[in-house]
Amino acid sequence: MLQNVVAINDLFQPLTVGSLTVPNRFAMAPMTRQASPGGVPGADVAEYYRRRAAGGVGLIITEGVRLPDPAAGYPFSIPTIAGDEVVARWSRVVAAVHAEGGTIAAQLWHQGAERDDADGVTPVSPSGVDGLGRAKGRALETDELPGIAELFAQAARTAREVGFDAVELHGAHGYLLDEFFWERTNARTDGYGGDLAARTRFPAEVVAAVRAAVGPDYPVIFRFSQWKGLDYTASIADDPTQLQELLAPLVEAGVDIFHPSTRRHYVPAFPDHDSQLSLAGWTKKVAGLPVIAVGSVGLETQFRSEKQGQVIQPAPVERLVEQFGAGEFDIVAIGRALLADPAWVNRLRDGELDGFAGYDPATALASLA
Ligand SMILES: Cc1cc2nc3c(=O)[nH]c(=O)nc-3n(C[C@H](O)[C@H](O)[C@H](O)COP(=O)(O)O)c2cc1C
């Protein structure tokens, strides 16, 4: 128990990566809200993030931000990042978070084939196929790829100018970059499809373009996942060797922090190889970079439970603390618990979370003295 207490306090120590110093190890997971009419984040958006920073979150990762191209995302109430008004409004969001002592990263998002085509805009993707393998939209031409990489780069440059402390590239959940990784959605024959190295090529080119745009010290976070919005059992890396093959080119291209998205942080990623180690732990091991863990932290209810309508229940975080103690991750992202309670992190720090057994603030203080 003493070990756990010490580890909890360690979660409240800062972490520096390049030009970013996160005051503690808690991030807010990116969560789409569709609350920015016309793509412009208003005062309510600034207040929404400010409250989470005031509640103790060290690093806000914004909801997915649409790249400034109509095909990149829909509906348009998802915020974007181009144009004077949008940029001015994001500056206020950033200032509000900074005023509370927090830091903030913009998550850059291209939805690929998962873009809703209700408005008649044709979705674009590696092979014109969605996450269920159905024809949707059209395949990108090879000579269009540099333009998409430049969209990411330009958005990252703008994010930096606005004052965001980092950018996160959304390469998870079956959206554009992930559609390149995944065999089901990538049947290209132009060198951007085929084996894992070829499927990683375009996302790595995007990372390189972003890195060139933001300079050497500005943190670039890359989010990826095995699971997809349309298939929880999907896999892009079947074993640790494949995970290494997937991540190495991204490291080479300039990623600073990986954010492997899992629905449950406590599930072993490759049980045949290790009965405990999470995807975050494996990512840290094979990539050698700081890692953000995520997935049902502090909640009894797993993310996107098959049992619809379940009430979200708080749960203890001992397993998370054990994983941190074992060096499996550097930062943990919290999603739904922060929607339910903007001050979740401060309540954890103060020992006020229900069901958090084994945490005694008095002992914790004594152990630090
Ligand atoms: C309402 C909602 C919106 C989400 N939107 C995004 C998003 O824009 N980008 C993204 O990468 N993940 C998104 N996610 C996934 C979360 O970032 C996170 O990985 C997931 O909620 C699991 O964490 P949790 O169990 O702590 O909620 C969303 C999740 C929720 C609940």
From TrEMBL:
Q: GO CC terms for this protein?
A: cytosol
Q: Which GO terms describe its molecular function?
A: FMN binding; oxidoreductase activity
Q: Which residues form the NADH:flavin oxidoreductase/NADH oxidase N-terminal domain?
A: 10-351
Q: Which SUPFAM superfamilies match?
A: FMN-linked oxidoreductases
Q: Offer one Pfam family short name for this entry.
A: Oxidored_FMN
Q: Which PANTHER family match?
A: NADH OXIDOREDUCTASE-RELATED, OXIDOREDUCTASE-RELATED
Q: What is this protein called?
A: NADH:flavin oxidoreductase
Query: Could you tell me which species this protein originates from?
Result: Mycolicibacterium vaccae ATCC 25954
